[in-house]
Each structure stands twice: as structure tokens, then as C-alpha cells.
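Dear colleague,

Following up on Tuesday's group meeting, I ran the structure prediction for the two-component complex that the binding team flagged. I've pasted the input sequences exactly as they went in, so you can double-check that nothing got truncated or mislabelled along the way. The C-alpha cells for the whole assembly follow below. Feel free to forward this to whoever is handling the docking comparison.

Inputs:
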Amino acid sequence: MTLKSLALAAAATVLVVSAAQARDQIRIVGSSTVYPFSTAVAEQFGKGGKFKTPVVESTGTGGGFKLFCAGIGEGHPDMTNASRAMNKSEFADCEKNGVKITEVKIGYDGIVFANAKNAPVTNINKGQIWLGLAKEVPVNGKLVANPYKNWSEIDKSLPNEKIEVLGPPPTSGTRDAFVELVMQDGCAEIPAAKELGMTGAKCAAMREDGGWVDAGENDNLIVQKVVTTPTAFAVFGYSYLDQNSDKIKGANIEGVVPTFDNIASGKYKVSRPLFFYVKQNHVGSIPGIKEFVTEFSSEKAWGMDGYLSAKGLIPLPDAERKKSATAAQALAPFTM
Amino acid sequence: MINALPTAVARGPNLSKDRIKKRYAAEARYKFYGLAAISVAILFLAILLVTIVGKGYSAFVQTAIAIDVNLDKSLIDSDNKGDVETLTQADYRAVVRASLRNLFPAGVTRGQERDYFSVFSESAQYDVQKLVLNNPSLIGTTQRIWVKSAPDIDMLRKGYVGAADDGSQRLNLTQKAFYDKLVADGRVRTQFNTTFFTAADSREAEQAGVLGAIMGTFMTLAVTLILVLPIGIAAAVYLEEFAPKNRWTDLIEVNINNLAAVPSIVFGLLGVAVLLQWFGMPRSAPIAGGVVLALLVLPTIIIAGRSALKAVPPSIREAALGVGASRLQTIGHHVLPLAMPGILTGTIIGMAHALGESAPLLMIGMVAFVVDVPTSLTHASTVLPVQIFLWADAPERAFEERTSAAIMVLLVFLIMMNLVAILLRKKFERRW
């Protein structure tokens, strides 16, 4: 019984202590895609020695916005990472809670459609990918459940292999981007689909008969699976292709190879912008926010030869990068 | 039976050879099934262990390269101040780079230097900084120190990757040739990876370690244990020994059993709502994590505690009450000490369960990148399963082996905890 009261006393003390302590460390939440870059900057920033290394949480883009916009004060994060721009309702949420923000675009992430190294090189376009993966496709002017079993049934130039694509589940930001950039665009390329009123979200449904496989959030696992199944394709972020280029290779989409240069120059179209958002209300009260933003937007971090490009971030084009850096360092207000 | 079948002839046992043979066969079959089930279980365990150890053992060693650093006074302390501030802030990157250039083959242009520099880890500058701070009198001399290689070179030495010039490998042939030359010069060795046990997380694989996660795990579990042990025992004792048997206690019992089966993420949500928002606990802190895990394992421990108390024979209670002990004395002096081994075993198994949880910690912000080794209960930290989860998702190849190595560390923890449970049981176990 004395043990119990002792424990309660200890717990109570800790509670009091924790409430009294001021926060002197930046807290960042948000996208797991931006996490590898944000953490790299955080580590460099901490090694500078002037400030504590920020704590970076991997909560996902949506979860990050929710935490970020929830309010002002030490209990709320100072920044959030995002693999898509903030949407209207998230902005409204921020505004309602008095959160003033700065948006910083940090670069691009390419999405690749890849297969095993020893499989033949594939040239494919978005329309063909859509025909292969959509739940319903137009055949003879009618919408039917996807009848294609092999890629070669869609086009003679494609391999005579079973359609099997491994990719992230709907909860993943990579999946959202793939649907938006490949499925919806691909659908628009097929005139027969347009005639049947297939546009936008209607094109987003994935087939559920085994052609598309939700292979989990972990991109490394998807890479491993596609290596062991040479006939299958997989969808994941460019950094994983970059790190595993000895085992897998990206398919040429619309005739363009997914390489660092092609994504950076915008030739390879399947890429999405990455962002982070700063809470202006916290600048000044939490030490180091301004300096952290400066570190992130410095050439040695996000430049063409910066340490982030070594981690797989595709830098913004020179002019845009300069503009973004100036805006970021001035903490330009963001409105919608 | 006999009344129901009055005309039946009383039957003796069937002792025919056939029948006996059949009975023996049934027994042999049963034994075989049991053995087969266990063999399958052992086989899967072996496969699991072999894959993890096979992938992870190489993370315990690391490639190191010897470099001769010229601790140039003009670069470190040109004004001859010699104070700690100057020595800490000096540009050691430049010191290291100047010394590395001496290793490069003649005629390497500035543009080609990048390939050569990327053979070494960026951590070399911190090694040099430490060297100088520990012994400032070394300034001006040239010291041979072993620095970590870049993870790509480490992977090459361990045979996971190769080198090529067509972009299909991360290392090109120039780098491979440079590495081969360093090997030929006797400047490359494989050393024990101490960093793995002395550092917290890092984005650079060669600088990443599990100490932060281990400390976080210790503190989180300590909070859990402090909360769970007294509350669990008190609840179990009350429910088993004092509580009247009525509809309310039945309801409580059903609820405890239900709670034991609630998905763990629910406890995380509870943690956010109650601990973080009401009590204002800091995010990502072991204190909050410990409380959440305590809620998670409490039902398991209460159930284990109750069954341990139930297993104490009533004769003990009756004897104690018979010689005039009060209910509390009976429980405190006799029942609880006898039930303790069972309760402790249940607690340790519950704690082992808590050790492996990461889902509820996601909600309270412990799935985070924390570079500093946590030192207090309110310091941001992660725990081992979360560290494994984060590394498993890292694109860099070198994190693959570290993930497996971290799993091995977690397994060692689990085995140790279970061992303690077994020892406790063996030591205090009593048979009636």
C-alpha cells in the first residue's frame, strides 16, 4: 500500500514538473514523405550547436495539418510537413484557431512505376496504365469491369505478362499523388472514357481483382516484393529507386526515364511538390524557428548539390528556388 | 445405464489384440501430431531468427578508414586563444577535407573531388573535434585516426552492393578504385560498431544508434511498472478477496476482460485526449507513453493477478482466519505472498507486451526523430519498436541491416524479461 502512495506521489510530481517546463525545442509533425528530408535538416541544424535538435514526428500529411492547425502555444507543433498543398478546409481550421502560417515549397518527389532490374525495359504511357489498373474501363462504348488480364492486351508493345502492380494503400500520400497524376491524367487521355463522362474522381477507382495490390505503407517492402516478382510492377517514391538502382529500374512514362535530372527539369511529369508550413505565431517564443527555416532554404541544404538532393529530394528550378527561399526567410504570410 | 437397458448383458472390457493395437496406434498418432505442431512452430521461429540475424549481424561491425589529420593551427585556432569556445566552433570540416585531399590520387580536379569525399562519412569532422577538445596540445601535429566510411562503402565492403559507371549502382568505378587503393594501403579495417550502442537516431546510417530508443524504452517501461504494479495488485486483491458477488462486480469483471482485447491504438487516442489535452503532458515524452502503456497492460495484469490469487488454496485462508487473523492480515501475510510469483510472472509478461507496442505511441507523438538521448521523463524520446518501424521505412540501404540489428536488440530485451519471469517463478513457486 505504501508502494502505491509512493507511485502516485511520483506521478504527481512529474506532472507538475512537466507542466512548468518551457519548451526550447522546435516540434515538427507531418508527412512521412518529407520526414527523411526534414530530419536531415533537423540533424544538421542541431549540429550547429546553437539550438537543440528539433523533434520530427512522422504523422502523415493529414494528421500533421490537424495537429498544426489545432492551436497556438507550447502544446502545439511549430511546423508541419506536407506532400501536398494545404486544402481549403485545413486552412479554414487554421484560421479559426488563429494560426498564422507561411508556406514553403521545398522541392519535388518523383513517383516511379518500376520493375525488377532483370525484366525488360518498359515504355508505357499514362493512358495504358489507367487501362491496366482502373476498376471500370470503356469497351465498345460501354463501361465494363476491367477485362484486361495481360499488358499486351492493352497494347502490343507492352510485355505479354500478367497485370500485377504493387502499390501503397489509400491512406498513403504517394497513392493520392499516383491517382491524381497518373490515373486521372491517363483517363483523360482515353477519348472513349471521356465520352462516357469519366473525369476526375470517377477515374480514380482501382481494380480489385488482383491487378492492383495494396502492398502496405512501407516502400522498402514494396521494393523487396517487386524484386522477387520480376513480372510485377510497383509504385513508390523516387528516393527508393535511387537507393535501390542495382535491383530495380523505373519504366519510361511517356518516353521519359525517371532520373534525377529529368524530374528536376520537369520532363518527367509524374512528380509532386513537397511543402512545409511554419506557424508564425511561434516565431520568437520558440527559439530557432527562423534559423531552422533559413537552414532548410539554404543552397547547401536544398540546392542542386545540397545534402537533401543526396537524400533523394528533387530541387526546385533555380529561379523558383531563389524566390521560395526569399519568401521563406521573410516568413511571408500565406492566404487562400 | 443398467436400469435403462435391463436386458443387456453386462460387458467386460474388450481385451482383444485388435482393440489394444488400435488404442496404442491412437496414442502414437496423437504424440505424432503434437510433435509435428511443435516442429512447425520451431521451424517458423528458426526461419524468423535466421533471417533477422542473417540480415542484422553485419550492422554490428562497420568499415573504418585511417586518415592522417593535420591539426593545422591556422585552421583551428589561428588567433591562439585556446579556449573551449574557439576550439568547439572551429571549422573541422575544412581540417578534415584538407587532410583527405592528401589521400586522393594526383591530378584530381575540384569537380572530381566530390566522388572522393563521398567515400568518407561526414562524421569525421566530429571525431576530430572530439580529439582536439580532449587534448588541445595535439594542435599543430598530425594524427592518424580511424574514421567511419560512408554507408555506401560500408555496403560495398559487406558485399551488399557493387560499383558501376552506368548509374545502376550508387558507387562509380572511380570510387571503387579509390577504395581498393585504400585497402591496398592498409587503411581500411572492419571495426566493432560502437556508435550503434552509444548514439541515438540519425539520418546518416553510420551515425545512427539505438541508445536513445533503449533509454526511452527503459523510462517508459519504468513509468508503466510503477503505475501498473500497485494498481493491478490492489484491483486484483479487491475483486478477488473483498468484492461482493453482485451485478456490479460482474459488470466490472466483464469490462476488464473486454479491455484486455481492445485494439491498442484506442489507448493512444485516450492518451491524446486525457493525458495531453487535460493534464498538459508534453508530446513524445516517456511519462505520457508510460501511462498509455500502463492502461494497455493493466487489464492483463489484473486478470493474471486474480487467477494467481484464485490458485491459493482456501485452506490457507481458513487456517489464517481460524487462528484469529483479520481478512487484511490473512491476505497480507499469507495469500498475497503465496500468489506473488504468479502475479509477478503476469506482470512481466504484460510488460513484455508493452515493450513491443508502437501503435498507441503513434498518437502521443513518440513516432519521432529524436537525435538526443533522452535524460528525463519529459524529454522527447522514442522506444525500440518505434525505432524499428522508422528505420524499416528509410530508403537508405544501410538502414536495412540496422533495422534487423535493432530487432535483435529488442529480442534480447524480451528474452531477458521472460527469463526473469521464469526465474522468479522457479524461485518462489510453491506446490500444494
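Residues 48 and 211 of chain A are 49 Å apart (CA to CA).

Cheers,
M.
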